[in-house]
Design goal:
This protein is mostly helical and 82 residues long. Helices cover 77% and strands 0% of the residues.
Length: 82
């Protein structure tokens, strides 16, 4: 997961950037999704997934307002929107 963020980010170890946080959240969301495919009754993980999705959604909203070009390139790179 750390390799993905360092190769794409503008600054190597800056996990404070919204773009970096969105990438980290997306990786965690994907791993929890895989976990939930196997463990369908794990409601605590499902709750954690919902929290992560809402955090990512708020960061995407912020990034869209702040810099539309970065937003569009990020959602295309991560394949998270239409």
């Amino acid at each position: 997961m750390a390799e993905k963020t360092t190769t794409i980010d503008k600054v190597k170890n800056d996990t404070g950037l919204p773009e970096s946080q969105i990438r980290i959240f997306t990786d965690r969301i994907n791993s929890i999704n895989e976990h939930l495919k196997i463990n369908k009754k794990d409601n605590s993980s499902r709750r954690g997934l919902m929290i992560l999705v809402s955090k990512r959604r708020r960061l995407l909203k912020y990034l869209q307002k702040r810099n539309l070009n970065d937003y569009t390139s990020l959602i295309k790179a991560l394949k998270i929107r239409k």
